[in-house]
Amino acid sequence: MSKSHWDSVYGRKAADAVNWYAPHLAESPGYIQRSDVGKAASIIDVGGGESTLVDDLSQCRLHGVTVVNRCGALWADLHHPERSQFSVAEMLEHELPQLMPMPEPFDGYVKTPARVSSTCLVSVARNRYSVPCELAGHIVSARLNPSRVVIVADDQVMAEHEWLTSEEL
């Protein structure tokens, strides 16, 4: 469904007139509380619309909730939870110049030392990965990314492999 479709639906009907509306979500706040994410957790409600999840979680003292909504037109009518004299759209317009720019994405990894076996294999996270034969017997650095394993020796990438989980073997 397109943005224009949803803007049209919300333009024709009141928020509580659509069949998916609920004045309060029955289960979501309980799931979030039982997950023990902590009071300072960042929670994103994607496609929230007129959802009361933000309000319900504020009652539970969880304040790091953000609503990402495809229907930006609703922001003009939605009162800001902390400054009710302003709409969410007005507060966003006011705050945008003060926000920091998004940083460039970075390649995060977990670094662990590993010894190369005589058969030129490195054991990392219960799997074995091949490396060049000249590294046999040496200590190398294994960099674990979410999707790959990078083997580094003397600050040079020597091998790179897809990180296989036990379910993928």
TrEMBL record:
Domain of life of the source: Bacteria
Domain (Transposase for insertion sequence element IS21-like C-terminal): residue spans on this chain: 103-163
Name of the protein described by the UniProt record: Transposase for insertion sequence element IS21-like C-terminal domain-containing protein
Organism: Aquabacterium commune
